[in-house]
Design goal:
Blueprint (H helix, E strand, L loop, with lengths): L1 H38 L12 H23 L7 H5 L2 H36 L2 E3 L3 E3 H5 L1 H22 L13
Helix pairs in contact: 1-2, 2-6, 4-6
Length: 176
């Protein structure tokens, strides 16, 4: 069951990463359109897109949120493991557990805190006022969702660590 659940979850994370690719492509289109409209006068169209910076910032945030759980699953997140590679295997394996437990706790805390912030923003009717006026909770809502996904992946990582060889992980290690 755990293998099937992990595989299904991996497919969900891959779909989110693909959504991140589409967001990146859309962000590129918005930026190119803004630059083109600022530099090429097109009758009937504005000189640039006043909202492009704001929308690009939000897209960059959403891109990060979509791709982060997939990167964790792939072992492509930032990881400094030079010490783990130098330690005895069983000690390194135990420290991997400590790192995963801390990561899980942090993800759960951020999910809880993000959910509280988004809910408070929704209840208060807070808005972001820049070029566009949008409810603040729209930008806060992805945060708890993504951290729940990260927490689930941390759980699967811990399961893979338990089932694997007693030593440090070797994915995404640059030193051999």
């Amino acid at each position: 069951m755990t293998g099937k659940a992990s595989d299904a979850f991996g497919k969900l994370l891959a779909a989110l990463a693909l959504a991140g690719c589409f967001i990146l492509f859309a962000m590129m289109l918005v930026i190119v359109a803004d630059v083109a409209l600022r530099n090429i006068a097109v009758p009937g169209l504005p000189r640039g897109l006043a909202w492009s910076n704001e929308v690009s910032e939000l897209m960059l945030y959403l891109l990060t949120m979509c791709v982060a759980p997939w990167l964790l699953r792939q072992g492509q997140h930032i990881r400094v493991d030079i010490l783990l590679q130098a330690l005895p295997k069983k000690v390194a394996w135990a420290l991997e557990w400590v790192g995963d437990a801390i990561g899980l706790a942090c993800c759960l805390f951020m999910a809880w805190y993000g959910a509280r912030a988004a809910l408070a923003s929704f209840r208060e009717g807070a808005v972001n006022i820049k070029t566009l006026v949008t409810p603040e909770w729209w930008s806060l809502a992805p945060l708890p969702i993504v951290f729940v996904l990260l927490a689930i992946e941390m759980g699967f990582r811990m399961g893979r660590l338990y089932a694997g060889e007693r030593g440090p992980r070797h994915e995404a290690v640059s030193a051999a």
